[in-house]
Write a structure and sequence with these properties.
The complex is a heterodimer of chains A (315) and B (282). Chain A is mainly α and 315 residues long. In chain A, 77% of the residues lie in helices and 1% in strands. The chains are: A mainly alpha (315), B mainly alpha (282).
Chain lengths: 315, 282
């Protein structure tokens, strides 16, 4: 179950590159680095700006700035937001839990739904009803989450009045929170299910002509048994890999849903930061999302070792 | 036996249909994009009375600025498709180059290129584009370039594995033993033989690029001088189109995005599946 050292090296380099990008971008872009670092949402005299420049070490040489930057990263110091009036790391962490509350149930539901429907459809890929299902799933897969959210918001909240229009949920009990989360989680689940469905379907189609499947059939197992006892485990590996590899993309999908429903997670944080050009929050969010993406990949590597022991030896 | 042949025919027909439905939808939009200047009733920047409902002179009404929404939609096809195509061409050229070089030469080169590819894959692309687009002034070409330069790694992986599959086949070996240069072998032996993986991937990359452009523009990071469908959605959302239930404003651009992305995915996936059938995988 050990993760190979080559993999660990690769993840470390990925994080190193991403964090360095985060150092380079504000200094490379056109404009005053201090504006690129602080954001545009503050009022300050030239004097206090100069003072701040010194305090932030922006008059030092670039290599020293780079070392100071890493020093900050290791202390989990991602700067200060003038728009939200607080340290970036604690602002992001307080919003993160709401995003995870949207993301984690959706990932679990969609993994179950998508892999079940996808594998049945892959096994009976020539059946017309599964072809129709594939077209429907492909249509959902082609729909950006923000557009699906707009449609759902219009139908279920505006027209039918079943769900609240805005998603602020500071107060209220568990049922209130569930009421607010129902539509966003449904949309995220629909989107992710369509993705998992397409991946699982393709994967089962590839697996089902392999020799072990022919052997299982020859043993006299039924189609269902062959599918769920033999094919399923192998076919679900690509699903896991792609879930980790596209973690950033999946998370972005959730962020857009949060924006439409004015929810309290990272999506609206990024959106607000964008509208007020509060760059520190943007950089911090990018770094946290990157860390999460790399951790997701490491976690899947670990799971792979458990599911398929052949792999941990061969990587 | 005849029954079996009938089944096969049916299968062939339905396969053909899926692919051709995709091609028809896509060609329709391509035609709209090319002919936007001729078929569009007005200039998309011409101003009329704002917020009018659909009527005989404005088939889809007008927006907050008084622009004719139908004309915006038709010209938007041009903007969205150019971003999609341009980004996908860049990503495909990069991906194919990296994939072939690392799959053909293997060894150290392969190790390094694949390490770079893996690291690239882990960078959250949409958040990175959001930062870069926020720092620079939103620009149409910039967004196209950014997507192109961030979307190549998956193509590189697919191309690498197909290159590895054919590099040891007899026709490549015989070309080698005849003394052809690596460049010649790559360009005239390998490339034509992996076209069938590159083309569906190219289609799927256009879809993905258009999807991403729409998302970024929806955040208001699009080029204000080039109205894409994503930007139309952004304006409709920001300027009260949703709250005032003006469905004719925000529904058409969204549906157009879905239709084009859907058609490209249909083409891409059915080509990939046909490939699997030819390889005897189905």
């Amino acid at each position: 179950m050990k993760i190979h050292s080559k993999k660990i090296a690769r993840y470390s380099i990925a994080l190193f590159v991403i964090f360095s990008l985060n150092f380079i971008i504000p200094r490379l872009m056109p404009g005053d680095p201090i504006t690129n670092l602080l954001g545009e949402d503050y009022v300050m005299t030239e004097e206090s700006l100069q003072e701040l420049r010194e305090k932030m070490g922006l008059d030092e040489s670039l290599p020293i700035q780079y070392l100071n930057y890493w020093n900050g990263v290791f202390r989990f110091d991602f700067g200060y937001s003038y728009h939200f009036k607080g340290p970036v790391s604690s602002i992001i962490l307080s919003r993160m839990k709401w995003t995870l509350m949207l993301l984690i149930p959706s990932i679990l539901f969609s993994a179950i739904l998508g892999s079940l429907m996808g594998s049945l459809s892959g096994q009976k890929s020539s059946s017309n009803s599964f072809k129709a299902l594939t077209l429907i799933e492909l249509a959902f897969y082609s729909t950006p989450t923000f557009f699906l959210s707009l449609i759902f918001l219009y139908i279920f909240s505006f027209k039918l009045g079943l769900f609240p229009i805005k998603g602020f949920y500071y107060s209220g009990g568990i049922f209130d929170i569930l009421h607010h989360f129902f539509l966003p989680i449904s949309i995220m689940t629909i989107f992710l299910t369509s993705r998992n469905y397409m991946i699982m379907r393709g994967s089962v189609i590839q697996e089902k002509s392999k020799l072990y499947v022919v052997y299982a059939k020859a043993k006299g197992l039924s189609d269902r048994q062959v599918l769920f006892k033999h094919i399923f485990k192998n076919a679900s590996l690509p699903l896991l890999t792609l879930l980790a590899l596209d973690f950033g993309f999946i998370l972005s999908g959730a962020l857009f849903i949060e924006i439409i429903f004015s929810m309290n997670g990272m999506g609206n944080l990024i959106y607000e930061a964008l509208l007020s050009r509060d760059y520190p929050v943007l950089y911090g969010s990018f770094m946290i999302i990157s860390i999460m993406a790399v951790l997701a990949n490491a976690f899947v590597d670990f799971l792979y070792g458990i599911i398929d022991p052949r792999i941990s030896d061969s990587i | 036996m005849t029954h079996h042949i009938e089944e096969l025919k049916k299968l062939a027909i339905s396969k053909l249909n899926l692919n051709s439905i995709g091609i028809i939808i896509f060609l329709l939009f391509l035609l709209i994009a090319i002919a936007a200047g001729i078929i569009s009733p007005y200039n998309p920047w011409q101003r009329f009375e704002p917020y009018t409902r659909p009527n005989s002179s404005h088939f889809l009404g007008t927006n907050d600025m008084g622009n004719d929404i139908l004309s915006e939609l038709l010209f938007g096809a041009r903007v969205s498709l150019i971003v999609g195509f341009g980004a996908s061409i860049i990503a495909t050229i990069l991906g194919v180059t990296v994939g072939i070089v690392s799959g053909y030469y293997r060894g150290m080169m392969d190790e390094i290129l694949m390490a770079i590819t893996d690291i690239y894959l882990m960078i959250p692309r949409i958040p990175l584009i959001i930062i870069l687009a926020a720092l620079m002034r939103p620009n149409f070409w910039l967004i196209m370039l950014l997507i192109g330069f961030l979307w190549w790694p998956t193509t590189a992986r697919v191309v690498r594995s197909s290159t590895m599959q054919i590099r040891d086949t007899s026709f490549i070996l015989s070309a080698k033993s005849l003394g052809f240069s690596d460049k010649h072998i790559i360009l005239s032996e390998i490339l034509p033989n992996i076209n069938h993986v590159i083309i569906p991937k190219f289609m799927l990359t256009i879809a993905s690029a258009m999807f991403s452009e729409a998302s970024i523009s929806f955040l208001g990071l699009g080029d204000p001088t080039m109205k894409s469908w994503g930007m139309m959605l952004n304006f409709a959302f920001m300027k009260g189109g949703l709250i005032n239930e003006m469905w004719w404003w925000y529904l058409p651009p969204g549906l157009c995005i879905v239709a084009v992305v859907f058609s490209l995915m249909l083409i891409g996936f059915s080509l990939e599946e046909k490939e699997n059938i030819m390889l005897g995988l189905e």
